[in-house]
Fold:
Amino acid sequence: MPIIVNLDVMMAKRKISLGELAERVDITPTNLSILKTGKAKAIRFNTLETICRELQCQPGDILEYQEEETKQPNDR
Structure:
């Protein structure tokens, strides 16, 4: 997937646990874990806003676009 989630990096920089952030953001630890591991398919803007407010960061600090490598015709 070309969207990389760096939530774990920001949490480590701010020295906040998954449980504490989940409580502050009012999201279940399970759902926050799904987001943190990059398995989430979507995130609501209000959830992203709350996470950014709690971590004192920008959305770009959490989400990153990385172009996928395209296979050449001779690649298998």
Remarks:
- The two ends are 19 Å apart (CA to CA).
- The domain at 3-64 is CATH 1.10.260.40 (434 Repressor (Amino-terminal Domain)).
